[in-house]
Amino acid sequence: MERPATALRRAAVTAEVAAEVRRRFGTPCYVYDRAALEASARAALAFPAPYGLTLRYAMKANPSRGILALFRDLGLHVDASSDHEVERALRAGFAPERIQLTSQMPSRALREHVARGVLFNACSLHQLDEFGKVAPGAAVEVRDLYALYPDYVIDVPAEQAACERARLIVWQHPIQWYAMPPLMKLWLDEVLTLGWAYGRGANGPGAALSGKDVWLVASTGGAESAYRPEGYNRYFFDAFLPPYEQTAALCGLRFLPPLLQHGAHAVGAEGLRRHVAAYRERLASYPDWPEMAELEPCPACDMPPGDRPADPMAAEKAAA
Ligand SMILES: Cc1cc2nc3c(=O)[nH]c(=O)nc-3n(C[C@H](O)[C@H](O)[C@H](O)COP(=O)(O)O)c2cc1C
Question: What is the C-alpha separation between 207 and 196, in angstroms, rounded?
Fold first, then answer.
């Protein structure tokens, strides 16, 4: 069956129309059928979408200004695949908030785009990292520990400042020996300091993280079936979580249900795509997660003084 837009297009460019175009504009000349474009856009806008729908025109299909203006007026948003396309959409009158940059090639103007309010669809961890660098404190800030601290010398004030800016802290890492990798553990040792992250009651010293959320996003080599009493890891994966949960609790952090990718080496492209989509959706919808209302608040853990070694530099720091 012929699609209506195709039928319309064939009917519109008759020999007479072509002759008229040649007479008025000369050749070669591109001819677009406004009615067909409009009909397609309206059909897509009318898709049933009980949870809402943002219709984006992938402008790489045809970035002609006239087409952009038509879709702009019909209320479409734009998916731009390069810095040039972002620029072109802006010049065609799209508000920055209606433009989303989705590009495999890293953007050279990301800082300007983000400052203007253009949306950015990070297509790789590298791009997410770049976004974190140009927009620290924005919706998502990424701190790739092995890239930042290849020498294991962690900038504690910078890490603490990043945590203070955040409402949700994500600990993202592969599971190694049923726990976190060494640099992540060093991060806990050095960044979660007594008197800043824990020790003393709510709102007092040691409450910098109190009331925030922490979310573990981890991958395992073992399949989910391996994390069962009959599997070679002998325990459900939950059995490895208490050190995380209690670290969070001591700091007044609410520990959210982890997002796990089991069997990371065997997951395949489609499985990986699903995992990334779930991760992205969760970040975008935080804190409006369905299970939030049922989560227990963070338990109060008041550690008595003397349970940690005294800071040998305390007197020096107080004098400074
Ligand atoms: C040193 C080391 C220890 C690991 N220990 C575990 C483990 O205890 N349990 C498990 O399921 N996978 C383990 N793995 C597999 C990793 O979890 C897996 O390679 C990772 O999740 C894959 O993600 P990546 O490609 O981001 O590294 C280990 C891997 C390494 C290198």
Answer: 6
Q: Is the minimum distance from the CB of 176 to ligand 1 under 6 angstroms?
A: yes
- 149 ligand 1 Cβ < 6 A: no
Q: How far apart are CA 254 and CA 57, in angstroms?
A: 40
Atom of ligand 1 minimally distant from the CA of 177: 8
pTM of the entire predicted model: 0.66
Cα-only R_g, the chain? 27
What superfamily does domain 34-142 belong to in CATH?
Alanine racemase (3.20.20.10)
Q: What residue ranges do the domains of the chain occupy? A: 1-31, 34-142, 152-320
The arithmetic mean of pLDDT across residues 234-259, rounded, is 97
Task: Tell the residue nearest (CA) to atom 2 of ligand 1.
Answer: 176
Region 98-119: mean pLDDT is 90
CA distance 81 to 153: 38
Query: Which of 144, 217, 220 for a ligand 1 pocket mutation test, highest count of atoms within 8 Å of Cβ?
Result: 220
Closest C-alpha residue for ligand 1 atom 23? 174
Classify domain 152-320 at the CATH class level: alpha beta
Binding site membership of 175 for ligand 1 (Cβ less than 6 Å): yes
Cα separation, 43 vs 5, in Å, equals: 10
